Amino acid sequence: MSIISFWSPEHGRGNTSNSAAVGAMIGLDYDIRTLIARTQFGDSSLEGAFLKSKELQLRNFAASTASGMDALERLFKTKRLEAASISNHTLSLEPGRLDLLTGTSKSYESAYEGIEHVIAAIFEEAKRYYQAIILDIEGGSTNAVSNQLLKSSDLVVVNLSQDIMSLERYISKEQWPSGLQETNRMILLGQYDPHSKYNMTNIRRKFGIKDPVFALPYCSEYRDAFNDRDVLGWFRRSRNAGRRHGSYPFFQEVRKTAKEILAQIGVNTEIKHIERGVS
Ligand SMILES: Nc1ncnc2c1ncn2[C@@H]1O[C@H](COP(=O)(O)OP(=O)(O)O)[C@@H](O)[C@H]1O
Ligand SMILES: [Mg+2]
Q1: 19 CA to middle of ligand 1, Å?
Q2: Cβ-based neighbour number of residue 223 at 10 Å
Q3: pLDDT band for position 48 (50/70/90)?
Q4: What is the CATH classification number for the domain harbouring 39?
Q5: pTM given for the model
């Protein structure tokens, strides 16, 4: 149904961590078909975040050419790509609800002219099967694949920080890829510090931001889960912990962000939400 791209003007702003967190929450808490994928060349940190629960399968996936983005690309080129069979080439993280598409094993140098249209067409096809496709795309303003995907996205989550210089650069729009201009956007501040003078309210006011602004607070346990490659396991264990749990504020904000994203793409979050304890 919809493509949600996570994009950032710079590296290291939590593009991958934020997309992994939102993807895990949607996959666990909502009864919709969700796909998470990255389109970077030579950066498998998104798969890495989920490695622990699926270590063996992911290794096999990486070694085989019959799965992941490269396999879909081959199918597309030979006109054999079908929406319903895309999930056969993904790793199921949560049966029927959350699939992970492993990214290309190719280097950027091996990309060919027009690859951006092939990749965009693959996700267009995937939209016929998945209700939400969450993409961790290469940041910056120069990548043709990202630019094409920004154009095809139903929603772009722009990952920023509380660093005023980089916010000023973003707001000036000087380095915006063309694909970002006309899309539906929301801003997500990563590793958020609510005690900073530059909190969400002040940032919004100072820069006159019209797009919705959300924030995921800095969370030590999330950092550890990401480093331990166990994002999904940690979400499974801890996401419903009570108010006194140290990671409660993080989960609250991931939940809010996930809900807003789904609402923006037209998912009825009341109906599709899975009651606690049912799943
Ligand atoms: N909310 C958070 N709390 C704690 N650590 C975070 C948070 N968001 C990101 N990080 C850490 O910041 C680092 C960089 O994030 P990453 O998602 O890899 O950035 P990007 O994809 O934008 O380059 C990662 O090591 C990650 O663990
Ligand atoms: Mg990244």
Answers
A1: 10
A2: 12
A3: very high
A4: 3.40.50.300
A5: 0.96
